[in-house]
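Sequence decides. Our protein:
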Amino acid sequence: MARPAYFPDNFTLALAATVALASFFPCSGAIADVFNAITYAAIALLFFLHGAKLSREAVIAGAMHWRLHLVVLASTFVMFPLLGALMKPLALQLITPDLYLGILFLCVLPSTVQSSIALTAMAKGNVPAAVCSASASNLLGIFITPLLVSLIFAGSSASHASLDAVLSIVLQLLLPFVAGQMARKRIGKWVDRHKAGLRLVDQGSILLVVYTAFSAAVNQGLWHQLPPAALAGLVLVNVVLLAVALMLSRFCSRRLGFNRADEIAIVFCGSKKSLATGVPMAKVLFAGHAVGMIVLPLMLFHQIQLMVGSILAQRYARLNG
């Protein structure tokens, strides 16, 4: 029997199950240290595979479209932080201050890679440009996100965006990516043939990070600090944030004279936020803080952006015939 359209996908179900597992059986002590080590290695492998998957031909083809990339980067690292700041009066009426910190952190993160490209392809948009924009956003985000965190969270005890934190992020994310690019000649064909199977690495590494982050948060009393009304308010804030980002991305792309294929790439790359990059960064940048509370807005936003993005991509595909 076919899965109902409203039923969550397998990864969403796995994510919910991981949060439930961490809520009832959080890891701690020596076991937590083991999980943290495994998670670090899994994230490094994830970014190594990202590098090995990325075709240099696609990068070169997409890199020529510099105006589009500037719009995407401005959407990701300028528009979103401004929206997060402007939403503060509304957000603090609906959610706790710690969750609002999570909203601000979400706003300074880079775009996703896989879902931005997949949705652009589904909508019949400019895929090479999307590949280049999403990848550039992720690589630049390794440096830009800690910088924005240090500026936005200045004076707050939540952030630890020091040089050591940036170096830790570079070692965990950037170096494996570069190593993957260097290894592409040797393993690129194998990676391309096994994309479906390697999705387990993508999703499994994210689930590991979520489990360790939420275990630490549960041990610190996460669910005792989060009223149901605040959780409902968080969903509403995420929906409003995504809706405004989508509308502004589309409006700017049309005002700047981009064609529909480019508009699609701008809308999907400029409105997404990366869970795979965001959760490891949060563990480094907010060490000692309630990381589970920080990443909860990102986790909800990730699921909402995928559901809304799929509907929007199908609509674009029908318009493009």
